Predict the 3D structure of the following.
Amino acid sequence: MSHLYDEVPFYINEQLNGVDESIPEFKFYYKDGQLSCYLFKGIFYTGTWPEYWAKFQYNSGVLFGTGPAHCRRCIINGSKRGVMVGPCVKCAPQYDYELGSGFERFGKEATLIIDGKLVPSVNDLHMKYIDLSTIGRPIEPVLLDESLELACNELRDKLFKIHGSTVDEQEAIEGLMRFIKSFNNPQEIREKIDSALLIPDSKMYNQNWAGTDWDWYTGQLNKDESYAYLFTKEECESIRISQERVRELVEFGRRAFIYGGNIEE
Ligand SMILES: [Zn+2]
């Protein structure tokens, strides 16, 4: 028997027995309103690891054995205190190098030069604003203010009456409560408590609340107004340039990956 999947039994189990309806697909954990990390299909990812990459590699990575759900090296090399911070060096091209050049061994990123340019480190990408010393398994938020704690419990009960039935919906409520309680500023918590009941059922499921426009989700802002939050022209242009650059890198990286060529020259 291969030991490749020792640490990722969730995927195999799901393939053999079907999706376990008693386990939520996503669990989100927050720190002062920001996503600190999330659990997807049994694997913890740092909050800035794009959810679409976690999902995409879970579903399609099985073909190449890439991503932490399928690759043991990703888990061993690219995690810190049990949370994924980057892929391994072999899998990095499958993420279009958006998550760095990949970790060649535990905690050590590969130095990769493509087309004369250095592939950026995770510390210049999704880990740029993350304090590495705070990475670790999530801690449930604790409120010190008794009246806030009571208001939160009351809200939780009401949300369960409105939304809670399936495991994912119940987790959505627990996740929303973690988000609300995560704020350092009690005023922020009170505002969220006051408007959380306005969130429609259709917007509860599998939600990363740190990535949402709260006022729009609670119907306190109409959709036209929310366009004010769109990117400026200059921002669009800089995004377009960086996407083009990433596409070039990917094309080059894929060729090197497929033919096993020496990418560094
Ligand atoms: Zn890997």
Notes: Residues 9-138 form one domain. The CA atoms of residues 144 and 178 lie 14 Å apart. Residues 1-9, 223-229, 261-265 have pLDDT under 50 and may be disordered.
